[in-house]
Amino acid sequence: MTKKIINPFQDESESLQIGGLTIENRVDRVSIYGTIDLTLDKVGLVNARQLKEVLDLTLAELEKSELPDKISLAPADTVDNPFA
Predict the structure, then answer these.
(1) How far is CA 74 from CA 1, 12, 38, in A?
(2) Cα separation of 44 and 41, whole Å?
(3) Residue 54's domain spans which residues?
(4) Distance from C-alpha of 84 to C-alpha of 76, rounded to nearest angstrom
(5) Is residue 7 within 8 Å of 14, Cβ to Cβ?
(6) pTM to 2 decimals?
């Protein structure tokens, strides 16, 4: 199994799935949504380590940056459904 990881705040096209969690990378935020069960087995250990690695990388990027108090997120663009 190839281990995939993201580079937080560096690439708008990166996305990662850990169990039922989806982690989407943006240049101004990292979005994490979904659910995950960290089970008491080898699969749970692998998932926990991968989640920790993503959070450690994200924290390292945040700590090395000069951060504003809060950013404003632009609203998402709505586009017509091309399949409708």
Answers:
(1) 37, 15, 34
(2) 5
(3) 15-60
(4) 20
(5) yes
(6) 0.79
pLDDT tens digits along 1-38? 456 788 999 988 899 999 999 999 999 999 999 999 99
> Does 78 map to a domain?
no
Residue 48 lies in a domain: yes
pLDDT score at 77:
72
Residue 39 lies in a domain: yes
Concatenated DSSP letters for 41-70? Answer: SHHHHHHHHHHHHHHHHHHHHHHHS---S-
* Cβ-proximal residues to 31 (8 Å cutoff; 6+ apart), any chain: 22, 23, 24
The answer as to whether 72 is a domain residue is: no
pLDDT band at 80 (very low <50, low <70, confident <90, very high): confident
